[in-house]
Design goal:
By secondary structure, the chain is mainly beta. About 0% of the residues lie in helices and about 50% in strands. A four-stranded antiparallel sheet has the order 2-1-5-6, with no helix packed on it. The relative contact order is 0.28.
């Protein structure tokens, strides 16, 4: 899973069940095909490895236009 939230906690992007190398799942700084305002967004990633182990990662990204 790949989730991105705005500073108010609203989900602005979600992708699931894809390979890490699949660049078509990259977030393009949009929500409902509209460019989002510059700012800080929080991301959460849940990775399932081939052995079944699941790890969660989180961070933030600054969107600059």
């Amino acid at each position: 899973k790949f989730l991105i939230f705005d500073r108010w906690g609203s989900l602005v992007y979600q992708a699931e069940d894809f390979l890490v190398s699949d660049v078509s799942k990259a977030w393009k700084g949009t929500f409902r095909n509209e460019k989002l305002n510059p700012g800080v967004y929080v991301w959460l990633v849940q990775v399932e490895f081939t052995d079944g182990k699941i790890l969660n990662f989180k961070g933030d990204v600054t969107l600059i236009r």
